[in-house]
Specification:
Radius of gyration: 18 Å
Structural class: alpha/beta
Order of helices and strands: EHEHEEHHHHHEHEHEEH
Number of strands: 8
CATH class of the largest domain: Alpha Beta
Number of domains: 2
Bound molecules: adenosine monophosphate, fe (iii) ion, zinc ion
Strand content: 15-25%
CATH architecture of the largest domain: Alpha-Beta Barrel
Number of helices: 10
CATH topology of the largest domain: TIM Barrel
Oligomer: single chain
Strand order of the largest sheet: 7-6-5-4-3-2-1-8
Helix content: 40-55%
Length: 278
């Protein structure tokens, strides 16, 4: 008998997905998901609403967040689950990170202007729900709408990617800082999509920097990567998570529900939180 499935890595309009919380829940329901993890970049603004309306969809919301860190000059994403998303210190830090996202968006637009590409900040912010959780995906979408690029990958390839001429770094935490921020708010820090890095020395280093879990299953992980990460989860005694990293219709395609992990993994997370309480 199945206990149901979860997709633990889903974005909403609160950050850089094109889907509202309602659309996420509607889709989760139609995929038959038991639980969905809302993991927006640097914000928990979608969670209160999601938790409030989830019962009418019969889907459980796992509160989450996705933070950006840096190690050895590489961008590392850290997921947090089950934090008290109303924790003031936690919220203050997220506010600070989003403020710096806004400043960075302005710098990216200045760099584009230096390349004779006119893009208005307003046209970017119009694609965000709350202005400040602005990211490169919003800028890429605005560039597409303005006819500057044909599609989102082109915007990253030509301008916004790490080696692109309009790239500006975000404010990064260290992996340990990100992990502690999540832990101090009562949550579980999980290294997101390690396979994207494809550098196992670095992956092992980050896994030992305060992580309590590892995202083994992800849209961009091959079956070989999944096997390697499973071994690392067991080596470092880490919880296993997984999710689609869906961004709605605005990235390339809709991934929600394409990565389904057994609900037992969610139960393992809940059990580990209970142990910590004791
Ligand atoms: P930011 O957090 O503002 O640096 O934006 C990073 C986000 O942009 C990621 O979470 C992805 O959603 C998206 N992204 C990064 N690289 C690409 C790419 N090559 N093509 C499409 N989306 C991308
Ligand atoms: Fe994103
Ligand atoms: Fe990510
Ligand atoms: Zn993500």
């Amino acid at each position: 008998m199945t206990n149901g499935y979860a997709d633990l890595h889903v974005h909403t309009k609160a950050s850089d997905s094109t889907f509202s919380v309602e659309q996420v829940l509607e889709l989760a329901k139609s995929c038959g998901l038991r639980a969905v993890g809302i993991t927006d970049h640097d914000t928990v603004d979608g969670i209160a609403k999601a938790v409030e309306i989830a019962p009418s969809y019969g889907v459980e919301i796992i509160p989450g967040v996705e933070l950006s860190a840096e190690e050895n000059n590489c961008e590392i994403h850290i997921l947090g689950y089950f934090m008290d998303w109303k924790n003031p210190a936690f919220k203050n830090k997220l506010d600070e990170l989003r403020h710096s996202r806004m400043e960075r968006a302005k710098k990216i637009i200045e760099k584009l202007a230096g390349l004779n590409i006119e893009l208005k900040l307003e046209s970017v912010l119009a694609l965000t729900e709350s202005y400040t959780a602005v990211g490169r995906l919003h800028i890429a979408r605005a560039m597409k709408l303005a006819g500057i690029v044909n599609d989102i990958p082109e915007a990253f390839r030509k301008y916004l990617g790490q080696s692109g001429p309009a790239y500006v770094k975000k404010q990064f935490l260290s992996p340990l800082e990100a992990a502690n921020l999540i832990k101090n708010a009562g949550g579980i820090p999980v290294m997101a999509h390690p396979g994207v890095l494809n550098n196992y020395d670095l992956i092992e280093k980050v896994l030992q920097s305060g992580m309590q879990g590892v995202e083994v299953y992800h849209t961009e992980h091959s079956s070989g990567t999944v096997e390697k990460l499973k071994m690392l989860a067991s080596k470092y005694n880490l919880l296993i998570t997984g999710g689609s990293d869906d961004h709605g219709a605005g990235k390339s395609k809709i991934y929600l529900g394409s990565i389904l992990i057994p609900y037992e993994y969610v139960e393992n997370m809940k059990r580990s939180l209970k142990k910590e309480e004791k």
